[in-house]
Design goal:
Elements (H helix, E strand, L loop, with lengths): L16 H9 L5 E7 L4 H12 L4 E6 L17 E4 L5 H8 L10 E5 L3 E2 L5 H11 L3 E6 L19 E2 L4 E3 L2 E3 L18 E3 H10 L10 H4 L8 H4 E11 L15 H15 L3
Parallel strand pairs: 1-2, 1-4, 2-3, 6-11
Antiparallel strand pairs: 4-10, 5-11, 6-10, 7-11, 8-9
């Protein structure tokens, strides 16, 4: 019988009655971690993968340096999916290998960079918070003492579980309780976004077929919030990470753009602060 959807679950070449029974009894993967990685960040990636495997995630690694064999000494290497394409970025891989029909069996999709410290992060607790808070798009807050910070809204707030907006002056604009969009509210950064199934279905279609670096994508993700972005998009404070800011193709710090693209992003920022 033809199936309308696919997935990223590894399948055995041959089935036996005992295998089918075991497979039926095993808990299937309900969530997906996808990361763009390079061999130089092997130790950091290993720590991340171990955390997510402990919570029964499906995992796919996109190797931007083309090196796969040197990962095989890690015990988990044979149970995750490896895809290699030299000098490609996270969004290039995501557009081609995370089609909504392929990942539709997963409740949540983590599309992460490789330069993230997860000592204070627990995937299971994180997802419980996303569900209880009604978040469709989120990211873990960043430890301000150890992280490379690009935007104040991502900074962890102690004694909070979640925050959805930032206050104060930003550039020539002001973030207040009446702000309705980025960079004040309804926004997550590109290094560690987490999407619900419905949000990813929308976000995937936002990715241009020829997109490379992903600049400006974070400003558009709020359109996929499945409702009010000021309520459905948030930063999770109680489960936080460290953004190491390593300049590689697997980290947001490597995304370099020409001046006219940078000015376009700034202009979009200002327009959101001062809507006409």
């Amino acid at each position: 019988m033809a199936q309308s959807k696919s997935d990223l679950e590894l399948k055995p070449l041959w089935f036996s009655k005992s295998h089918v029974t075991k497979q039926d009894n095993d808990q299937s993967h309900h969530n997906l971690l996808a990361m763009t990685v390079g061999i130089k960040q092997k130790l950091t990636v290993d720590a991340i993968v171990r955390k997510f495997l402990s919570e029964n995630f499906a995992i796919i690694l996109f190797h931007y340096d083309g090196i796969v064999n040197e990962w095989h000494d890690l015990w988990w290497s044979h149970i995750v999916i490896h895809i290699a394409a030299h000098s490609q970025t996270k969004w290039w891989f995501a557009k081609r290998f995370l089609h909504p029909d392929t990942v539709s069996i997963y409740d949540y999709i983590f599309l992460w960079d490789e330069d993230l410290g997860v000592e204070n992060f627990h995937p299971g607790r994180y997802l419980k918070i996303m569900k209880s808070e009604g978040l469709e798009i989120s990211q873990p807050a960043l430890d301000p003492n150890l992280s490379e910070i690009h935007h104040r809204i991502t900074v962890r707030r102690k004694k909070r579980t979640v925050h959805r907006r930032v206050f104060g002056t930003r550039g020539t604009g002001e973030c207040s309780s009446t702000s309705t969009g980025p960079p004040c509210t309804g926004w997550v950064e590109g290094m560690a976004p987490v999407f619900s199934r419905s949000a990813w279905h929308c976000a995937w279609h936002l990715i241009q077929n020829d997109l490379i670096h992903g600049w400006g994508m974070d400003m558009k993700l709020g359109y996929c919030a499945q409702g009010d972005r000021t309520k459905k998009v948030g930063i999770v404070d109680s489960e936080f990470i460290v953004h190491q800011g390593v300049q590689t193709l697997g980290g947001s710090s490597a995304k370099k753009v020409s001046l006219h693209v940078l000015l376009l992003v700034v202009a979009t920022d200002l327009c959101n602060l001062h809507p006409s």
